[in-house]
Amino acid sequence: MLEGCPENVRRVGVVGCGRWGLKHLQALLNIQTDCEIGCIVACDTDPSVLNSIQLSGIDRHQHPETLVEIFQLDAVIVATPDDSHYELGKQFLSQGVDVFIEKPLATTFDHASSLVSLSIEEGKMLKSGFLLRFHPCIQDARSKIHAGRIGAIQAIRYCKKSRRFRNVGSHALDSLAIHGIDLAEFLLKGQTPLRISEVLGDQTCSKLTLEYPSQLETHIEVGWGANEDVALLEILGASGKISIQLANHSAYEIESNGSEPCMVHSTHTPLEGVLLDFVQGGGSSVAASTGSILRTIKCVEHARSKLLSSGRFDTRELKR
Q1: Are residues 139 and 105 in the same domain?
Q2: Taking a C-beta distance cutoff of 8 angstroms, is the pair 264, 252 a contact?
Q3: Which of 74, 105, 128 corresponds to the end of one domain?
Q4: Phi, psi of 162 (to 5 degrees)
């Protein structure tokens, strides 16, 4: 089964081959020559899902517990439902491979911390799916912000709405808002929120406001079942504003005494970029560190614990 997989190349498995797992498989095929991936294995417990995969150049396997041993894998990507991330992550780290877990890393801070500790014990890499850090426009805008192009950041707005319906077991804060929280830390050079000043909504649609030092706020609005797809990041500065339509990887706008289009060139999509970083060894300073991942999960956990379908809640201080 391992014929055609030379010893000096990476062998990668994708566990969970639904809509997002298929995107991972395609992205791995796209970067295969960039990082010498010799074997790509699709793994799903549902044989009908495996049989429906139309991609060529991949192997298929039905049993996650034997995946690593049979295919002698170096790395595994977990793209299963959120509530399975912890157990699968623990299984694969214990089997001695590098692990990439789609966000959230786990649904509780304690489980996420346990996975980080296990990765350190095993000497293996643990990454999560904060792909927007690898968005070409966000990277370019971040460099301009840090060079003072729009002055000091005063507010960040992140909106992600999808016409798709919510998957059973998913939560808008864990699956969607988490990107906005991570992007704020990325753009603010590691600053963490002082408090959650507002959280509204339910598992399907949520609004979240985070307060940072110097009265800076991050406003996040996310949800499924929307009338139209929206994916927008806005950064408001003292002397201008940056607007990024996240579906566009090649251009964004800066507004400062008029609108200025900014063109960006990149050879990889955000998903390809984050997977390239993972497969090549995770040396990028762009990728979220385990510390950053844990801080983001802790913030989400605080927000989720106070979120009821009818609720609007008082300010809650975050413990640093």
Answers
A1: no
A2: yes
A3: 128
A4: -130, 145
CA 53 – CA 18 distance, rounded (Å): 9
Q: Strands 10-15 and 37-43, how do they pair?
A: parallel
- Whether 17 maps to a domain, the answer reads yes
Q: Same domain, yes or no, for 171 and 308?
A: yes
What are the phi and psi torsion angles at 99 (to 5°)? -130, 130
Confidence of residue 258 (pLDDT cuts 50, 70, 90): confident
* Same-domain pairing of 202 and 283: yes
Say whether both 203 and 149 belong to one domain.
yes
Q: Which of 75, 77, 114, 79 is nearest to 97 (CA)?
A: 75
Coil, strand or helix: which one is 275?
helix
Q: What are the tens digits of pLDDT across the range 34-93?
A: 988 999 999 999 999 999 999 999 999 999 999 999 999 999 999 999 999 999 999 999
The total of structural domains in the chain comes to 2
The helix/strand count (H/E) of the chain reads as 10, 15
Name, in order, each residue with C-beta under 8 angstroms of 310's C-beta and a sequence gap of 6 or more: none
Residue 2 lies in a domain: no
Is 75 within 8 Å of 13 (Cβ atoms)?
A: yes
Q: Whole domain around residue 62: which residue ranges?
A: 10-128
Whole-structure pTM value: 0.92
